Amino acid sequence: MNVDAKFCKYCGGNLNEQENQTYPQTQQTHTPIYTPVQKPKKSFNPWGWIIAGVVLLIFIGAVSDDNTSTSSSGSTYSNSALNTEPETPSRPDYSLPHGTVIKESDYYISGEGALEISNGTRYDAVAKLIKGNTAVYSVYIGANRDYTIEGISDGYYELMFAQGSDWNTVTKQFNKNQSYSTFDETFDFITTEDDYYYYPPGFEVTLNPVVGGTAETSTVDPSEFNKY
């Protein structure tokens, strides 16, 4: 055995023998005993990213809805807090029944005279028949209604009237659209007679201007009207 022999650490061959041999001009390479494991390359999978994106969008939408709901509920609470007082429904104007007698004096309403009053306006009215310094008869006349005062005793009378809407039972006045007037001339209730008949006096008046009317009216102060 040749101690000087040289052996290849890979294949175990005698290098001395190989050196002494003549080989063709062919380049040889050694293959190492360890061969690295070849791992396959990871392929790109887009579905994972798509699923992650969808989950992210759902989460963002849920958070946004929750914030909107909180904001809306807060606004509702704020509005309800501001509108704590209930709205008061408007009531219709109050009127006394047509023909309601407010005042009557038996002494002066015991004759034969009659006074027909026509209220051709859209407002209610209160007519006062006045003798001296006293209202001997006061009556409530509805809008576009007629009323006749009967049994008026002979004498000289004035006629005043107020018009308006929404009668106040406490103040005995109209709350809205008030106006106060008086007829300029007096009403002379004088009974006449002849050998066969007697003729009780009677008058017809309108509280609204009419064509061909002869009676004139003037405006009066509310205090003047209310003192009777």
Please tell me the CATH architecture of one domain by its name.
Answer: Sandwich
**Derived structural class:** alpha+beta
Can you tell me the CATH superfamily of one domain?
Immunoglobulins
Radius of gyration: 59 Å
Kindly estimate the percentage of residues that lie in beta strands according to DSSP. 25-35%
Number of DSSP-assigned strands: 12
Mean of all residue-level pLDDT scores: 79
Can you write the helix and strand succession as a string? HHEEEEEEEEEEEEH
Tell me the name of the CATH class of one domain: Mainly Beta
Note poorly predicted spans.
Answer: 22-39, 72-81
Quote the CATH topology of one domain.
Immunoglobulin-like
Largest sheet: 7 strands, antiparallel
Count of helices?
A: 3
- Helical amount among residues, as a percent range? 10-25%
Report, as a whole number of angstroms, the end-to-end distance. 164 Å
- Outline type: rod-shaped
Please provide a written account of the structure.
The protein starts with 14 loop residues before the first helix and ends with a helix. The longest helix has 37 residues, at 46-82. It has a domain at 101-226: Immunoglobulins (Immunoglobulin-like), CATH 2.60.40. 21% of the residues lie in helices and 33% in strands. Strand 9 and strand 10 (198-199) form a beta hairpin. The relative contact order is 0.12. Strands 1, 3, 4, 6, 7, 8 and 12 form a seven-stranded antiparallel β-sheet that branches. The chain has a three-stranded mixed β-sheet with strand order 5-2-11, with no helix packed on it. Strands 9-10 form a two-stranded antiparallel sheet. It is α+β, with helices and mostly antiparallel strands and 228 residues long. The protein is built from three helices and twelve strands. It has helices at residues 15-20, 46-82, 222-226; strands at residues 101-104, 113-119, 124-131, 134-141, 145-152, 155-168, 173-183, 187-189, 192-193, 198-199, 202-206, 217-219.
